[in-house]
Amino acid sequence: MTLKQIGRASLKQFFQANPEAAVAFSGGADSAYLLYAAARYARRVRAYCARSPFQPAFEWEDARRLAGELGVGLRAVEL
Fold first, then answer.
1. Is 49 exposed, middle or buried (CB count within 10 Å of its CB: 0-12, 13-18, 19+)?
2. Which residues contact 50 (CB under 8 A, 6 or more apart)?
3. φ, ψ at 27 (rounded to 5°)
4. How many CA atoms lie within 13 A of 11 on its CB side?
5. Where would I find the H helices in 1-79?
6. Is 27 helix (H, G, I), strand (E, B) or coil?
7. What separation in angstroms does the CA of 63 have from each of 3, 42, 77?
8. How many other β-carbons are positioned within 10 Å of the β-carbon of residue 45?
9. Which end of the chain lies in a sparser environment, N or C, as judged by fewer CB atoms within 10 Å?
């Protein structure tokens, strides 16, 4: 089994044991992969993204787009 397969199996097991998930989603690669795994393996998922006046608009739009593509609701947490 490859490291990638081990990671995938572990996330699958985690979300099957915890079928309702809230994911802190920045829009970066790590949180995007976690959100993808949650959307694939959990029963109910909601993503939360921190927003601030210093955040570029394109980052928020990218996060909204990806959450939408995964079929996951995204809520902004205003800072």
1. buried
2. 24, 26, 76, 77, 79
3. 95, -5
4. 19
5. 3-17, 29-41, 57-70
6. coil
7. 27, 19, 13
8. 23
9. N
- 3-state class (DSSP) for residue 47: strand
| Structural tokens at position 7 | 């990671």
The residue type at 57: A
Residue 45's nearest CA partner among 61, 56, 29, 31 is 31
The type of residue at 25 is F
Q: What is the pTM of this model?
A: 0.85
Give the residue from 22, 67, 64 showing the smallest Cα distance to 42: 22
SS3 state at 43: coil
